[in-house]
Amino acid sequence: MSLNNSSNVFLDSTPSNTNRFQVNVINESHESSAAMNDNADPPHYEETSFGDEGQNRFRISFRPGNQECYDNFLQTGETAKTDASFHAYDSHTNTYYLQTFGHNTVDAVPKIEYYRNTGSVSGPKVNRPSLLDIHEQLAKNVSVAPGSADVVANGEGTPGDEQAENKGEDQAGAVKFGWVKGVLVRCMLNIWGVMLFIRLSWIVGEAGIGLGVLIILLSTMVTSITGLSTSAIATNGFVRGGGAYYLISRSLGPEFGGSIGLIFAFANAVAVAMYVVGFAETVVDLLKETDSMMVDPTNDIRIIGSITVVILLGISVAGMEWEAKAQVILLIILLIAIANFFIGTVIPSNNEKRARGFFNYQASIFAENFGPSFTKGEGFFSVFAIFFPAATGILAGANISGDLEDPQDAIPKGTMLAIFITTVAYLGVAICVGACVVRDATGSVNDTIISGMNCNGSAACGLGYDFSRCRHEPCQYGLMNNFQVMSMVSGFGPLITAGIFSATLSSALASLVSAPKVFQALCKDNIYKALQFFAKGYGKNNEPLRGYFLTFVIAMAFILIAELNTIAPIISNFFLASYALINFSCFHASYAKSPGWRPAYGIYNMWVSLFGAVLCCAVMFVINWWAAVITYVIEFFLYIYVTYKKPDVNWGSSTQALSYVSALDNALELTTVEDHVKNFRPQCIVLTGGPMTRPALLDITHAFTKNSGLCICCEVFVGPRKLCVKEMNSGMAKKQAWLIKNKIKAFYAAVAADCFRDGVRSLLQASGLGRMKPNTLVIGYKKNWRKAPLTEIENYVGIIHDAFDFEIGVVIVRISQGFDISQVLQVQEELEKLEQERLALEATIKDNESEEGNGGIRGLFKKAGKLNITKPTPKKDSSINTIQSMHVGEFNQKLVEASTQFKKKQGKGTIDVWWLFDDGGLILLIPYILTLRKKWKDCKLRIYVGGKINRIEEEKIAMASLLSKFRIKFADIHVIGDINVKPNKESWKVFEEMIEPYRLHESCKDLTTAEKLKRETPKITDAELEAVKEKSYRQVRLNELLQEHSRAANLIVLSLPVARKGSISDWLYMAWLEILTKNLPPVLLVRGNHKNVLTFYS
Description:
Helix content is 52%, strand content 7%. The chain has 39 helices and 14 strands. Helix 26 (695-705) links the parallel strand 5 and strand 6 (711-718). It is elongated. The two termini are 39 Å apart.
């Protein structure tokens, strides 16, 4: 924002105090004026408007000789204070006030520190002022140490014991990885495991190229859906260590998380054995070629595997930094080996390789190998079971989520890219090897074609070789027999061997790291108390050394099996169970429709995730039904155990969210679960009276509670108890039926009380059931407050005070025409009665016609003519159309239209959120939920916050960062730097005229008369008005800013000012609300209960 200091801007004025300056709105230039004139005027909502609200610049005027005030304003960035704004204690020295964009108040602006968890390692948690701090009467004798107010105001509270512990956890020098080194490299290495080099050729030989590609794509479909679900869960807040276990447990709760955590950690431990056995098989094959066997093939695999696991354990124990360096080296070797294979396929084959079945790219070989040729005991799903573990490395990056710099960014990006790259590689290798190598070959260079021999369609025969004897006796070469086909095909065989070593060792190393990390996270959550021993970490990276040794023991046990084909199906079932629950977690979180479910990664679908979960379960049973049954029995047993033990944890899971929207049968169960910020939703008591009397108020509330929160339409019957209770009971069923008929998901509740405030107080305390308890009071603005009796004003303001006393948020809704359409309903009811009488009379006429004949009918028509009976209108016409046919004086057509404005689809426009004070985030959550509705989805959020004029850009960036952490989309952010500037004289004059009838003017009367008037008529005193003059200025000034920035908005959501009990009179508070929301579009004045309703954690 720039200031024009030319002579025509600084005009002389006569302010009441030489220390003040005022800000007036002016046009920037002739061009801007012309541009504004071209635009259509925004809609007018009431009969008057403030001048100059359309411009977007300001000028400063002051008396001659006081320009130093203006210079000081520019240097400090603070708005100038009037004499009345200075208190006995200033915010820069000793005071109980905090400084909020230049104004001394306890009320705090939005800051990220208020939303941190107590256990956050990313920074200290600071408690904002409670609602009682800003609502209760301010104590007079509060002493604060010098400078402490600024510290608290800036979010720099003294860390408590919990924060001190966090500092110990966040030790200096911890190794953190980016998305490439931490996720992409690990996933690629773990996916490119033993199968790529020593089993993929056999799979192509068994299933053929066609079904082989299908097997790869089916595996990729399972892993891709799981990857999308993982990405969605991982980006729904901060992700800590624990990988798949952490994602599942924080989504579905400790019951599912605890059961799958053990299975997933165990699966990774067994995977170590699988990859090491693959490595050992390759070494044993090399020993066979050199005739260097130690004992026999099986025992040699056990010996080599055991030695390998010990070496890998040493690398892992050395630390994550060494393990990461080893992974990068292994990836380079692996990439060279894969490239070496593709190069080898185009190098002309020699006689030795041809005898072993390699003929370079041949169409005849491709055609022969395209179909399946399963050997005895093998089939599609058995081959799929062998291959599927090759795709199970997708969680290698997520499993070390605690060691990633930014898990929310790294996990989706690295995982999905790794799936794509490895899938392309698998497909390329499968197609190439299927087009170059025949299924069976003898390896003898002498098995060539004899002249005149019939080939019978054999591809090898057509290329000059006779491998027909492989049909009757086992052969050692070809896709079906030789596991080292890729080494034979490659340009340089030893590189493939190095690639096999790299793929198997890297996968084994990744699994050896993943298993202890997941297991440690499970043990840290103390779900299984007997396993707490393994939660301890060592070193700067909190390494789970105890978990490493446990994984080592499990891996050694499975290495002793020494059969890869036996281990693979077990691994498949364990990983498929984990993948199924990850997919179900994503579906469940989406289905629960919790406002806390806001994944930054939007490329997912809840039904696709459910399909992925079902697919995983189906594949488990198809691969190996008895292994699947055992897996689910174990998981079910663990689930029952955790449920029975009821661990003392609360992660805001989607299970809690879904339980919330279920029927009252689950209400009792919900009482055993603590609330969580992720599952917060507005649960509203709406003071509609009868729900049909204020439909607009109910519609706007229903818009942000439908399918996500509790909505109770409340009515207070005031009068003699006997009559009230009778009337109340007679209308309960009818009014609830009206809600159901109009498809409004809300409850109706009513109370009888001696006065309105007592009734509302009872509703605030007693409404709800268990956790389904209201946390927000929604009321309509009292438009007729100037004409209303004093008792009505006291009751209206009193219920706001009561709501704050009960720590319940308040939403006041104002529309230009008001809400009450009871008079219209009265007319409608009379019309319905007339309609019923008319129909009854017509029925009587028809009956008489059938009984008495034409003569009787003519006489009856004569009587009916005297009653002006006409043909009844069709019932299909709406009640509003019926009302429109009446005299204009009998109803208010504008009121009827206003009562339906929130039922209509809102066109493209904006919802302007003026987040002036931090109330826990309710003021932001409500408009966010509105934008999810079909009727409001075309409206974009614009955020307005207060700030210092010399820090506008910095505060804008800070607010954008906070909103991005909340995953709340916004169209624009505006930082208003001149909120505390005095309003213009015209606006202030309107306010003074408004409060004039309610002022006491005790300064003009003698002391005795003034005291008597104070007791008899609680009006606005001069002392009160002077004490809160700055706040009054602010309300008037805010209306000017609202007129300037938000007059054309579809909806305005604005921080509700809080009146301190005993300090602000009811008349003055109503005047504040009036001047604040005057001549504006629909306004929601929102004040939460100063407890977090938003979070950026998982």
